[in-house]
Input
Amino acid sequence: MATIFDLRNVSYSYVGKIDALKDITLKIDQGEQVSIIGSNGSGKSTLLAILDALVYPSSGEFYAFGNLISEDAFDSISDSEFRSYFRTKVGFVFQNSDIQLFSPTVYEEIAFGPLQLDLPVDEVKSRVEDVLEMMEIGKLRDRSPHTLSGGEKKKVSIATVLVNNPDVLLLDEPSAGLDPRTQLWLIELLQELGRAGKTVVTATHDLEIIDHISNRSIVMGEDHRIKMDRDSKSILSDYELLLSSNLVHEHTHLHGKLVHEHIHAHGQEHESHGHAHIGGQHNHDSVEK
Amino acid sequence: MIPDWMNNVDLQPGHFSAGRHGKKGFIGKTIEGILGFLEEAFLSESYSKRPGLMQSLDPRVKLLSILAVVFAASMISDLKVLVAIYLLTLLITYLSKIGVGFFIKRVWLFIPIFAGIIAIPMIFNVFLPGDPLYTIIHLGAGAHLGPFSLPESIFITKQGTMAAVIFTMRVATCVSAVVLLFLTTPQQILFKSLRTVGVPKIYVLTLQMTYRYIFLLMEQVREMYIAKKARTIKSRGLIDDQKWVGGRIGYTLIRSLSMSEKVHMAMLSRGFSGEVHIMQEFKMSQRDYLAGAAAISISLVLVLISQDIIRV
Output
């Protein structure tokens, strides 16, 4: 299977001072579904920005589709063939939808991408219609982005990227702030895209969705290095690993595929029910995450 | 986990009068004012969706027609003609299903600010000589105000009054035409139609984005203010509040800068490469050509009148 992204000893630091990534070496192959997990500030978003060639490694090398990504090729004003190719192939859904939605109406927002890629206007129109229908956001077409709800904004953001039909999809915390129903919808969408052969890379700390949307997980440590790169199932069952990466609290329990937390009153109760139970029945109050 | 002092709970009932405690703070008033203005701007978009005369025209025709009328009106110095054009804008307002009362109020709200200040000095003989209409004060010969010598008496002149009325009427007519354009065209389409008068694409896009993010930043400002209000236990002095506002202005600027950087990234990610492509969905129909031709002919006649080639 062809390698899409190839990072070799990549480090990145903001303003040359604040480290965001340290010595990252990884490969992502075509058609893979990968989750990048890590606590806040571990470098997930920066890693995605590097994968989308929006920022460039401070040191190390980054290859995409077998080509070295360099600032020279990507930040130049004159057209670069590789840049156009890359932008057509890779789509990025930002964490903050307000950043992604800069056009006056939903319709124009979705049309923006294909127009930049120089598709003929008729095709742009039919693609926008298809995507509006597929995402069930047809009724929002003339709305201004600032009048949309959080879930609607996220749907439109995803639509603006899918309309370019990228082979590689990068998503930054896509499930954050979504209601349970929309979250489920998102999982199903990502699964379907995966089945269609798209490469999907999702940065998240929502442990509940990882198993559903990826078969490989990369755990980022708080030292901004890769802590573990394995199949999602074994990562999710490695409680010690998740605890040491600050992804779970000592009161988090993993029941097979379900992650949940118990609210504890301090003192004796704490002692009495312990934290060792994985699976099985519970009769105390629990809060599903 | 929590420190000892946090274990204290004090739920003594308290009775406080709910009466007035003085005026609202200046920050609250300012923010409410700006938000109110923006909300009204947003609300007036609804006029652009009504099935009226102006709304049915192609925005490019509207823009060019209004520009032509404004240009012609600014050349006219005959009061009767100006009043006629003004009445015409009112008629079009009516045909565009906009409340004429609302429209007049909206236009005349700004006239005293823009035109009045310039026009008022014109009516006094101190600035423009002319025949007396109404004498205000008789000063006698050789009156001085510092190094300036004043005329014998100060009065309002006939010519000055006429000039001021014409000036104000001209401004009112032009403002009416422009307000009509703004009210009957959705902002975003209006921005796009600027392309027809040769405004480069990148400026149109920038304008659109500015309009989009003003709302977002305004919302952030409101949130900051509400967050402050929620934690204000004791009201602070004016100076402290002003310091807070200064700090927040800086913070909003920094936030908007970092946001603009990210928005740029989001654009790059979707294929933007410096040369922007936007969709232009304008269709000219026969009535558009007709309306455009009518507006331009009227403007042409007006210009001919102003040059005394046609006499009224």
Observations:
- The interface with chain A takes residues 1, 187-188, 191, 208-209, 211-213, 215-216, 219, 259, 262-263, 265-274, 276-279 of chain B (CB under 8 Å).
- Chain B has one domain: 31-229+247-263+284-306.
